[in-house]
Amino acid sequence: MEKTEKSTFKKLSGIDISSRTEKKGQHDYLSWANAWSIVKFHYPDALRKVYESDIGLNFFSDGSTAYVKVGVEINGLEHIDYLPVMDFRNKSITVDKITSMDVNNAIQRSTTKAIAMHGLGIKLWIGEDLVKRADARTQPKYVISKNK
């Protein structure tokens, strides 16, 4: 399994997606349809699973906001992504304002991120979790401690 996982990641991360990306604001964006079509071309047995809550909804809630859970399985390995239900500015939407289209969009974005964990388009997310510090005097300093 480990050899298959490495070869799958190596193959998918090596695919040039530049002709399939679009701009969304300042960021490059790979649509779920492009990501899924590439994956299915290379791995026809790939599967996607949209997880449902205990009451059968295709999203989960903390009572204030919501998120979706999507898994993509390739060669027997499933990667799962959790993604907040967000508006066009990537801000969480409160539960009372969520529409079925908002949930659908979150599922498709989450599908693309789960695919990226298998390698395809992962470069689009490199650095997304880093805080850009415009002014070091007003931003907190992050210290990595070796003590546990």
Structure, briefly:
The chain has 148 residues and is of the alpha+beta class. It contains three helices and six strands. It is 28% helix and 21% strand.
How many beta strands in the DSSP annotation?
6
- Number of spatially distinct domains: 1
Number of helices: 3
Amount of helix: 25-40%
Q: Structural class per helix/strand content?
A: alpha+beta
- Write down the secondary-structure element order: HEEHEEEEH
Distance between the termini: 33 Å
Q: What coarse outline follows from CA principal-axis ratios?
A: globular
Q: Mean pLDDT across all residues, rounded? A: 86
Unreliably modeled segments: 131-148
Strand content: 15-25%
Commentary on this structure:
- The protein is of the alpha+beta class and 148 residues long.
- The protein has one domain.
- The protein is built from three helices and six strands.
- The strands form two sheets. Strands 3, 4, 5 and 6 form a four-stranded antiparallel beta sheet that branches. Strands 1-2 form a two-stranded antiparallel sheet.
- A hairpin with a 2-residue loop joins strand 1 and strand 2.
- The longest helix has 18 residues.
- The two termini are 33 Å apart.
- 18% of the residues are buried.
- The C terminus is likely disordered.
